[in-house]
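User: Structure please.
Assistant: Input sequence and predicted structure:
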Amino acid sequence: MSILDQMESLDGAQEPKVVEANTECKIRILDVKAGNDKNGNPYIMPRFEVVGEPLAKDFTKYLPVPNADLKREDLKKFERARWDMTEFMAAFEIDPTRPGDPEDWAGKEGWAILGVSKSDEYGEQNFVKKFVRGH
């Protein structure tokens, strides 16, 4: 017996889509990638899904970790990174004084206003325009 014998019908399959721009949505963290950028600065990149929208494409948000090296390199980028991380953590009720391991954030839910961008490589994709606190 083939594993494909268990497959449901493909009739009516629908292409994943983006959520309309400027929509406030409840989003869930699926996983978080952590790494270093080309300058050696750390970042995290959560991957999200839109809650209740099974056809919505998953999307990510690049978040530089505001650290002493970034502060020395570029104060403006450092301050922006601090603000972005503050907004992200507030939206997902992550305590910035005890954030734990980002890998443990999978499943956390928060709110964001989404935008839509288009690229030749990926087509249309959602992105976070603004995290929303206190829902």
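The first helix runs from residue 68 to 73.
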